[in-house]
């Protein structure tokens, strides 16, 4: 299932994505004058923070809507898939990615492309969903979809590997893994709660359903997962688990 994005909804319901990226930015440690590619740059808010270090930053994203939003922030952004990057060999000192790689279906092709566009000695620094990420949400959504006869719609939406498996995969593609960690990170959601999260981060799944069923799936999924992820005051916390790494070529 192909995910689609609405930059306005993302800004309202997914601001925590760039707001909680301080840890992976520390691992990147961008320096003035470095050439850095933000892979899966989204609406460019995090790309701006990297550029503020004095690095020369470009962004790339598969969503034309997100690329337009990034360009609106003054980011040099291009529309392209991670498996086919529109850059020459050895173009960058670092490739950075936050909350994007788990959307990439062709992981092996993506790694080959990242390695190709990195200069010798360059680094690949990223954070993505890891094993166990949004486990409760996924179980609830799959159950609701199955009840309505659309059990397959959540299949293959995301890829959430273990640290060991992803390290081995990186090494098979010529990377040297310097550091990798699986980090549980329960994440408070904004006022829109679980319904806002589902409409933003499962938009592709919902768009594939008959229109009259979409709101039903959202409401039933939120109700099913509420005992696990909503507190007595109505606040939602998503069960996020992040995989963060540094790998060099």
What does this structure look like?
The structure is a single chain. This protein is α/β, with parallel strands linked by helices and about 250 residues long. The chain has a domain at about 5-135 and about 160-190 and about 240-249: Vaccinia Virus protein VP39 (Rossmann fold). The protein is built from 11 helices and 9 strands. The strands form 2 sheets. Strands 3-2-1-4-5-9-6 form a 7-stranded mixed beta sheet, with helices on both faces. The radius of gyration is 18 Å and the shape is globular. The two termini are about 30 Å apart. About 40% of the residues are buried. The model has no long low-confidence stretch (mean pLDDT about 95).
Summarize the helices and strands and which ones pair or pack.
Elements: H1 7-13, H2 16-19, H3 22-28, E1 35-39, H4 45-51, E2 56-61, H5 64-72, E3 76-79, E4 92-98, H6 107-117, E5 118-129, H7 135-147, H8 163-172, E6 176-184, E7 187-188, H9 193-201, H10 203-207, H11 211-229, E8 237-238, E9 241-248
Parallel strand pairs: 1-2, 1-4, 2-3, 4-5
Antiparallel strand pairs: 5-9, 6-9, 7-8
Helix pairs in contact: 7-11, 9-11
Q: In terms of per-residue confidence, which ranges show pLDDT below 50 for 5 or more consecutive residues?
A: none
- Global morphology: globular
Output the helix-strand order.
HHHEHEHEEHEHHEEHHHEE
Mean pLDDT: 93
**Strand percent estimate:** 15-25%
CATH H-level superfamily of the domain at 7-134 and 158-189 and 238-248: Vaccinia Virus protein VP39
CATH topology type of the domain at 7-134 and 158-189 and 238-248: Rossmann fold
Helix content range of the residues, please?
A: 40-55%
Number of helices: 11
Number of strands: 9
Text of the CATH class of the domain at 7-134 and 158-189 and 238-248: Alpha Beta
What does the main sheet amount to? Answer: 7 strands, mixed
**Which CATH architecture of the domain at 7-134 and 158-189 and 238-248 would you pick?**
3-Layer(aba) Sandwich
Distance between the termini: 32 Å
């Amino acid at each position: 299932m192909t995910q689609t994005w609405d930059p306005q909804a993302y800004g309202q319901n997914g601001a925590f994505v760039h707001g909680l990226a301080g840890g992976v930015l520390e691992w990147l440690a961008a320096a003035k004058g470095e050439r850095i590619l933000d892979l899966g740059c989204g609406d460019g808010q995090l790309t701006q923070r990297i550029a503020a270090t004095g690095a020369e930053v470009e962004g790339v994203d598969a969503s034309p809507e997100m690329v337009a939003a990034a360009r609106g922030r003054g980011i040099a952004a291009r529309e392209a898939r991670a498996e086919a990057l529109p850059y020459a060999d050895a173009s960058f000192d670092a490739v950075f990615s936050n909350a994007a790689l788990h959307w990439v279906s062709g992981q092996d092709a993506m790694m080959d492309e990242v390695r190709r566009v990195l200069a010798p000695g360059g680094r690949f620094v990223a954070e993505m969903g890891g094993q166990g990420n949004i486990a409760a949400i996924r179980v609830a959504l799959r159950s609701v979809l199955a009840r309505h006869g659309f059990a397959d719609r959540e299949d293959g939406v995301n890829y959430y590997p273990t640290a060991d498996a992803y390290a081995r995969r990186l090494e098979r593609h010529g990377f040297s893994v310097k550091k990798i960690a699986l980090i549980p990170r329960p994440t408070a959601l904004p006022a829109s709660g679980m319904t806002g999260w589902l409409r933003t981060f499962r938009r592709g799944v919902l768009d594939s359903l008959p229109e009259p069923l979409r709101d039903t799936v959202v409401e039933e999924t939120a109700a099913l997962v509420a005992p696990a992820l909503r507190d007595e005051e109505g606040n939602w916390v998503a069960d996020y688990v992040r995989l963060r790494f540094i790998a060099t070529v």
